[in-house]
Amino acid sequence: MVTPMDTPLLEVKGVSKTFDGVVRALDDVSIAARQNEIVGVVGENGAGKSTLMKILVGVYPPDKGELCYRGRKVPFPKNPKEAAKRGISMVYQEKGVIPRLKIYQFLLLGYEDKYVKFSRLQIDKMKKHAREILEELHVKCDAEDFMYELPLSTQKMVEIARAILSVRLERGDANVTPIIILDEPTAPLTVEERRELFSDILDMKKNASFIFVSHIIPEVMEFTDRVHVLRDGKLVAHYDSSKEKITEEDLFRAIVGRESSEYIYKPEVKRVVSEEVVLTVKNLTKNGCYYDTSFDLHKGECIGIFGPAGSGKSEIIKTIAGLISFEGGVLIVRGQKVKADELPHVRLGRGIGYFSGETGKELFLNWPIVKNISIVNIEKILLRKPIPVISFNAEKKMAEKIVKKLRIRAPSINTDCYSLSGGSKQKVSVGKWLERSPDILLLEDPTIGIDVGAREDIYETSLEMKKSGISMILVSDDPKEYSILCDKIMSIKDGRIQKVLSPENLRKVMAA
Amino acid sequence: MKILGRNRLITPVIIQTLKAHPVILALIALVVMFSGLYPERFLTPLNFSTILRQLVTLTLFALGPSIIVVTGSLDLSYVGIWMLGGILVWLLMPILGMFSILVIPLLGLATGLLIGVIQVKGKIPSFILTLSLLVTYWGLTATLSGGYPKPVRGYEFITAPLIPYLPTAFLWSIPIITAAVFIMNRTRIGTYLYAIGSNEEGVQLAGINVDKYKILAFTLSGLFTGIGSIILFPHLGSAAPVELLLDNVVWPLVAIVLGGTPLVGGSGGPQRTILGALTVAVVWRGLLLSLLQPEAIKLLVGLLLIVSIVVGARGLKGVTIT
Questions:
Q1: pTM of the complete model
Q2: Which of B182, B205, B210, B319 to mutate to test binding with chain A, by most A CBs within 10 Å of its CB?
Q3: Of the candidates A260, A81, A90, A85, which has an alpha carbon nearest to the alpha carbon of residue A163?
Q4: Which chain B residues contact residue A371 at CB under 8 A?
Q5: Where in chain A is the domain with CATH 3.40.50.300?
Q6: Least Cα separation, residue A221 to chain B (angstroms)
Q7: Residue A389 near chain B (CB below 8 Å)
Q8: Distance, first Cα to last Cα, chain B
Q9: Whether the Cβ atoms of residue A285 and residue A466 lie closer than 8 Å to each other
Q10: Residues 6+ apart with CB under 8 A from B25
């Protein structure tokens, strides 16, 4: 409208947020979104992206900071409805869709009072209005379909349409430019669906501005006009792709920070790999995730599967763990062909352990450290006579050994895990697998969101396990990790293995 | 100096116990209150004996289900097992004689197994599944009995008085309770059941067969209810019942939640249920002696359940309540 092009539509200035008085989630962060642009906000998990977005839609109040809408200072919203009044609406990563509602019901959910006449809902008017919106925004679906009938990418589009609509209805102005926050919108989508979603979003650019939250670098590079980089709660970089040329490596360095070049890779610790093959993957395929994957894992070897998020690396490792099934190909564990739909406990029986660094997934947070370590090692602490009874003494000794070995910082082994720091939590999870020492250990993002010191301890432990003959497969977002831990790295893109690199080669590729 | 030294040792233990089991405070407060209000009615050996009898009923009903609540599910089938078991005893009496009482634990075992398998394979919420089973068993009991309670003679010896004022059923329940507490705290099964209630995904990631242990939990619950019902059968009148009393369904639930086993699972367990059952028994006797209307007592019990659920739901740190 009358807003001059150079005044940002929305500006956040100097926002800080502290949780429980200790954890500094955001520190003096400022970002801006202009009329009809897609602005990226990127960073690692725990960098503060979500916190910032939640402040924008009124989930958390900030400790400090200002919000300007069309150049005018406004108070921060206290709830999503107030946020919509200030032109902001968010599309959540997951759980935003209500599958059993029809599309028009979902679009207008919460705004039914605008369609009430004589205390009766005017269904026809609702449908008509919904159809108009869908048509205007080029969402290809029928307003009377159920949400669950749509493909995932279209569901996302309907969610975006709903966000745009809520801003229009709250402001009572059909020509307003809403600011739509997309929180990792592509997380559940396959490669093809991502493409589709993005071309649709580019179409919608004339109707709205987008704040695009992600940690997937290629996506951000391709679809955003400007990028803000957050790291450890601080704004560390800002790129304008219309003014300067940036590479994926630049962005990567900004996101991960510090260590992109300093590798602590020591050639002498590597390659005591024997000829014995413990795991064979042959033409493994799961449609929409990965295709024709083949490799051999030797005893005491660590193979890394390296690629951008969404490339299928995570699905491959989860398939081997038994968390998802495969559709084609063969998986052979220590000479035995395994069924596609085996559950994780059967795979563990075959000697495959799976460790995910995602916080809280593995741990029993209301349990003390000692129990969290013994859960996969109960076999070792049972007194056999006359009935299998847990020996608390053996349990305690086992936990103390692990706590000491991994330098877990905790008042005692009876400390409940929810009160530990992120690094200590991770070490407890690693520790239980160290004690169990399966033949094959699958590591997925083993050091995500933890500090450097804890990282180094975990690397050291992993290398030690490797030395003792445990084979490993690593999937991570951090290339440095591959060159430290792996003997062999397979790069993967769009679900297909591209090439096999040695750690030295990977280092060269990353440095170039 | 000696007393001081002892205090130093004892006080932290007391504080820790009270922190872990806040219901003890409520229990003490209730006993003090009732004793103060009407000592001549409350502070009698007969009254305490009655409280113990009520405690036995509550504990034996609540023991199995409290194992299930630990895993984050719910088992309401206990009254159904007791009722149908009773009528089966009456039916089998002419054929099996005294051994027919053993049909109750078998029924419990089978019921638990059935619930477990259906719940795991069908992914049906346990609450509605066990509630339907309870109603089914009730209907089956009424059909088999022709609508009238059937007295069964010959099992009175189980609860024959041994010690004055100490119900024999209470003595019997001690080994049963001990077994449940032992299983939940000292064996692999118990550990895994707590784990399932705390973080089911984590259990799967740790390479444990979640389905197997869930089925096992329901089987154990049914078995404990069945074994308990051997005592409960003579304890509650040696007759196959045909009326489904809501009290029998609700009070054990109050005992579980009040004892400190939150319905979200992951903590608590049978040992806490005993404390909850004792508190409920004291409340029940105290209210009964207060000469309030029975309806008013029901109202108060309902409120107690609500309050204990609300309080219990906030007790778990690190566990998201969904």
A1: 0.75
A2: B205
A3: A90
A4: 191
A5: 10-260, 261-351+441-450+471-512
A6: 34
A7: yes
A8: 52
A9: no
A10: B18
Whole-number mean pLDDT of chain B? Answer: 87
Q: pLDDT by residue (tens digit) across B293-306? A: 888 888 888 888 78
A208-258 confidence digits (pLDDT tens): 899 998 877 778 888 888 889 888 788 888 888 777 777 777 777 777 765
Tell me the C-alpha distance between A94 and A313, whole Å: 21
At residue B316, does pLDDT exceed 70? no
Work out the minimum CA distance from B234 to partner chain A, whole angstroms: 32
CATH superfamily of A10-260: P-loop containing nucleotide triphosphate hydrolases (3.40.50.300)
**Chain A CB contacts of B187 below 8 Å:** 387-390
CB distance from A239 to chain B under 8 Å? no
* A375 inside 8 A of chain B by CB: yes
Residue A342 is encoded by which pair of tokens? Answer: 């085996």
* pLDDT tens sequence across A316-344: 999 999 998 999 899 999 888 999 888 99
Which one of B192, B206, B318 has the shortest CB-CB distance to A418? B318
- Given CATH 3.40.710.10, say whether it is the number of domain A261-351+441-450+471-512: no
Cβ neighbour number for residue A224 with a 10 Å cutoff: 22
CA distance A127 to chain B (A): 33
Amino acid occupying residue A336:
Q
ipTM of the complex in this document: 0.80
Q: Which residues of A touch B208 (CB under 8 A)?
A: 345, 375-376
